[in-house]
Design a protein that fits this description.
The protein is mostly beta strands. The chain folds into three domains: 100-120 and 287-345; 142-281, Jelly Rolls, CATH 2.60.120.260; 349-641, Pectate Lyase C-like, CATH 2.160.20. Helices cover 5% and strands 41% of the residues. It has a 16-stranded mixed sheet that branches. A ten-stranded parallel sheet has the order 3-5-29-32-36-39-42-45-48-51, with no helix packed on it. A hairpin with a 4-residue loop joins strand 24 and strand 25. The longest helix has 10 residues, at 2-11. It is globular. The two termini are 29 Å apart.
Length: 641
Amino acid sequence: MAAAALLFVSFGVSNWSRAEAAVYYVSNEGADSRSGETPDAAWRTLSRVNTASLVPGDSVLFRRGERWRGQLIPRSGSEKGCVTYGAYGSGAKPLLLGSVQKSDPADWRHEGGNVWVTPGQGTRDPESLGRIALSEDSGPWHLHVEGNAAAQGSKDTSDHDSPPSSYRIHCTKSGERRTEIQLYTESFDITIDRIYQLVFRAKSAKPFKLIPPVLMQSGAPWSEYSSYPQAGKRRVGTTWSTYTYYYKAGLTAEDARLTLYLGSVLPEGTTFYIDSLRLAECARGGALLCDVGNIIFDGGVACGVKVWNESDLSAQGDYWYDEENFAVKLYSTVNPGSRYSEVECALTTHIVEQSGASYVTYENLALKYGGAHGIGGANTRHITVRDCDLAFIGGGDQYGGDRTVRYGNGIEFWAGAHDNLVERCRLWEIYDAALTNQNNGANVKQYNIRYRYNAIWNCEYSFEYWNRPENSSTHDIYFENNTCVNAGHGWGHTQRFDPSGRHLCFYSSTAAARDVYIRNNIFFEAKSNAFYAPGWPAAAIAALRIDNNCWYQREGDMIYLEERTYTMARFPAYQSAHGKEPNSITGDPLFADSENLDFHLTEHSPCIDAGADAGLKADMEGNAVSQGAAPDIGAFEFGGK
């Protein structure tokens, strides 16, 4: 009863009276100049949605059967009501794509042999936009030094890349933080969704790694104005070299500036030179402005294989992302635009970026082809994701530069997160975890997060959890009535440096935890372990309230816990050793047709009436629970097909 009451308080706000709220419509046939208040006056773009002045209770509805590219940045609601992003009309769920399409043969240029490259980004204006070029008196550039750093800046007419001078910074003390030495411009204008190219030449008496310049607000609160992350640090050597960066303006503003953060990275005793600067507006979207985490061919029939060096391109579908030129090089025996009917380059940005958001509901949306997270962001609360599809997510380069770490989850609640719900969703072909809540910060609390009645297949992990350090905490996490199939059978498994394939992946988690419920789930086949928590101490394992699950693993170790492994045949030994899961079962759940993704139960399934009463009243398809003596295990109640 307590859990049911808590659920009502936490998520009931989404049912706030819509009669008092506005509904806005979005269609590929709309126009951003319209009111958006009726289907005939629909908006057109995600940019218009992201800048809309929404209030608690408002809804933004995307037309079914249509698609949008880019990133959704939700507006928060309040205790009075959620802001809802959903669907209207008939047909397939509205599709939000985190990719750039390169399906036309004209999108590829032959480089020789079997290597093809995406063309570079052209510029609309061959001249500088003004107010950033270096002049004889160093122009509008300013050097700011603070804290423990020490540096001096001036023009240099004797050592430059182009006349009359370069700008020189001599560093005598690096400082401890990047902000302690800043080279920045005066303000200039930018326009939402326009793409800008920054090019300059630079060198340093002592080599160092340059932090990508930031397009940002000129004053408090110093917000970043670009929606695309730049590649990682790039080496500045002792000879003049060219550096190119792209920025997509996230809004229209008159107070943009460019900032080079040099504190802590500029070596002490060195002299850094910068010259030949140019900022131009780009003519068309030719460049891939951030790392490409995956290339999806023909709607998922095949995926590209990411390699880390151009020299490794050797087989059909191999691709390499060129950080310096913002392009992809792809190995293909013929032009990729001719070989494949559809080529989608998944950009390493979240399709939904919800950092800091609260009281938001996403319903009946499809999210595909993103190189980072499908829905990601830190410090969220009262988020509901319901009846959504997420597929082919992740694979992007997390850090850029020399660090080659790939990542990407379907739905991630990072850092402080509470009162969040994911229900009745389908998630497949996710590089990392389909569902996860994680934290790596001090004094952070994660609680009352629920994942229920979801169908998950072909993801590296079905559910991943960890929280650290010791002074953070977790409680009341519920992973219930989910059907999890074929962990590690997805597109990314063979491309990982750490191939695993686990349904429950619990990495080292030193934060205090209690009441983590894992119950009424089906865990069917995993490449590695269905349940993985080898480093968890006994106290952490005690926090797991795990029972009434169905486990099936024909071969290999099924459970890896406290440095001990258990096959499916040794499940009784696991139960005895850890005092867990007295009512769980092992065996084939007898799906209707798993090869064709029909995970309904058949009449002789051992999962029927084998679940615990968790107070839930409807299954993934809205059918009543239960329809027998007790709830069924998994996302589908038998008899409700």
